Amino acid sequence: MKRLCAWLLCLLLVFTAAGCADADAEIRTGCYFLKSDGEEIMTPYLYLNLENNSAHLSGGMAMSYAETGTVTVDGTRILVETPPTTYVFRIQNEDTLILTDCTGENPFQLPVGGELVFNEEWS
Fold first, then answer.
1. Is the full-model pTM beyond 0.85?
2. pLDDT tens-digit readout, 55-86
3. Mind giving me the DSSP string for 95-122?
4. Phi and psi (nearest 5°) for 50?
5. What are phi and psi of 20, to 5 degrees?
């Protein structure tokens, strides 16, 4: 009897883990600001529009230069392609993205490991 219970418990854990492995993490359309101590208007941000899979990345609300590109959500990763740069973010939760890789130019000097936090007010 104990073996049967242990075996069923193991099966339950395996199926639960397998079901969660490929699930897309939830994120929201809107503005994600780089977590910093600086003024919000001068803080780099990423605007995601998940309805049309577009992205807008800027060095701050006060800057006129911005990169525009496409967004691909792949499980717990977000790929933002703004030629000539590709940014890869890990979805920590629906309000937080972590930059894990950046290839090409990085005009806004976003640090790998930097946290971008959802901002309801600007979204």
1. no
2. 999 998 888 889 999 999 999 999 999 988 99
3. TEEEEEEEES--TT-PPTT-EEEEETTT
4. -80, -15
5. -85, -20
